[in-house]
Amino acid sequence: MEFESHPARRVIRTVFFIAAIALVCFDGLAQSTVNVRIMAANLNGDTQSYQPFALRIFQGLKPDVVAIQEFNYTSTNGLGVNTPAAMREMIDTAFGTDFYYYREPFTGNGDIPNGIISRYPILTNASWSDTVQTSPNRGFAWAQIDLPGTNDLYIVSVHLLTSSASNRAQESINLKAMMQANFPANAWVVVAGDFNADPRTEACVTTYNGYLTDYPVPVDQNGNSDTSAARSTPHDYVLPSLTLTNFETPTVMPSRSFPNGQVFDSRVYTPLTDVAPVQSADSGLAQHMAVMKDFLIPVSGTSTTNPPAITAQPQSQGVATGNSATFSVTATGTEPLAYQWRFGGTNISGALTNPFVLASAQTTNAGNYSVVITNIAGSVTSSVAVLTVTNAVPFISTQPQGQSVPAGQSATFSVTASGTLPLSYQWRLGGTNLSGATTNPLVIASTQPTDEGSYSVVITNVAGSVTSSPALLAIRTNVTGTTVLLAGWDTSAQSNFGTSPLPPSTNAPNLTMVGLTRGSGVQTTQSASAGGWGGHGFDAANAAAAVSAGDYATFSIAVNTGYTVSFGSINRFDYRRSGTGPAAGVLQYQVGAGGFNDITSLSYPTSGSGASLGAIDLSGIPSLQNVSSNTVVTFRIVNYGGAAGGTWYVFNTISGTAPDLSVQGIINSISSPANPPATNAVLSAPVFSAGQFQMLVTGTATSNYVVQVTTNLALANWAGQFTNPSPFTFTDANLTAPQKFYRVIVQP
Q1: Among 305, 353, 534, 587, which residue has the fewest nearby CB atoms (within 10 Å)?
Q2: CATH architecture of the region 395-476
Q3: pLDDT in tens, 690-714
């Protein structure tokens, strides 16, 4: 279905005055009349498609409203057959760019739809089915037309059957019933078109008696009222309602007047200069003659009218594909004003509002836009505004965020991006593409330790790609309230105990063993007795000397970047002394560079005695809870002194791999490392080469920057056009807009 509709409000279109305007002044107002010419037209030839001869007849006779039959057209400019663009070409050529039309739905070759063409806005339109015949779109096409003045016109375009008079009679009976049931009482109604009637007394015509009328009967300049191609039968009619006949007026041509209306035959009409560009043979090529009746419609209003005048023209602009574009115009003149927007000089169907909005501009929408503004006094056409539509590279507005989740639970990464659709996504772990990870968001249903790492996403479209900032995923092997092994050291397994850092437990990748240290004058040995017990001894450096009071051994733990840790207990810590070793000492802790604090006193049993100390609970020490990233926690054993040659030991009495010193606690959380803010971009001087614009964009290395463009600084309608890490060269080959402005911002 092709049609051009109109907003619900009344809009009076441009009026071409064919007859003289009569003015009668009273009470400061004026009563004016507008001539409306209504035509029945089955003017195509044997091809059942409108040809140049028919278009010339329309151009010469200048009807205001046409009931048209066999409404088909093939474009002469490559716009197709019966396409909306082709039909618009026909209307613009034969009538004018400010005409409206409605055409019954087209279903395929062989269709001969009816239609309505009007100088005035079509408010509503439809096609009622003609049940007497089976053609899919040869129904009763009707439209409600917004005539000047107070009344609308309801017109029906018909093409009755040739098969029999009884069929035509039934068609008219059905149509009359539908009009009386659906059109307002006392409405101005016209049925017009090809009745295929032989005499005027045929029932398909007389059925309308008392509702519509055939009188007065239009004739040509020789008095002939027949309208068939051979001028032998009255096939075509314009039947107005009785309420409309009060306004019938002669059909006036420049050199002739037809009191009853006109049957036009170019073969007999003279002079043809009245109806230029009609040629004498044109009507002989048509199936039927054009039939017209004129009506002088009263229009009340003020005594003066002003044609439209544009005070602010529509402006050129550039937008990225998928973004909206808005054109507006400011005009003055006698209200109401009607607007018809055009693209490339062709009316845009339904574009009748101001402003005109393209909700999602595509590259096919790029081009020249203008608007025709009309009122009762005339029309004006705006200047051309150029729309530039560019493919926009992906632009990330919300980056994926780091997170910490317990093992076995799900993790979700998402990103928000814009740009020319469609956008494709490829997620990466540690810079390597993840197989099948091409959706947004990315959901890891059941996280495992192997999923831990840095995630990013590459977003791609036809214009380019952009890579997100990294987001760190940490997998917690514990949950709140559950204590796990954080670190442990097996002194008996080290042949060179204390000379190099010892590895932490593999259960705690968030911790690093800093190492073991000794006080001055202390050496470590693996004596026979200590080795037998699975431990190491701490002796005086000189066997003749005693282990001095204050000598110590320390174990240090560093909390890695991105974590916080709470310590629970020292799970196992066994110690002994030789018969001459120190009898007592103290266990201490230190956080960062602070001082050492006592945890508990130690009383060393002699060699071979039972364990002196088991688990020590650290959860009640506030400074050992929620220890932040990059903080070193140190545990220290300090001697209170001993006899010469004495030895004290740190060891594990349990055979196997249990560590001599092990620390339990909870990994609390993880935070994404903060990226330093990027600096403002620096733009090089522009370079024009081979019709292209280029400039170098420099900023913080690897930070993403967005090139934005607009064609109008006043509108501040910046559109993202290119996103890339610094440094990069930006090239714009689309320089069709009259002007362009560029800026570069740090990607949010």
Answers
A1: 353
A2: Sandwich (2.60)
A3: 667 888 888 877 678 888 888 887 7
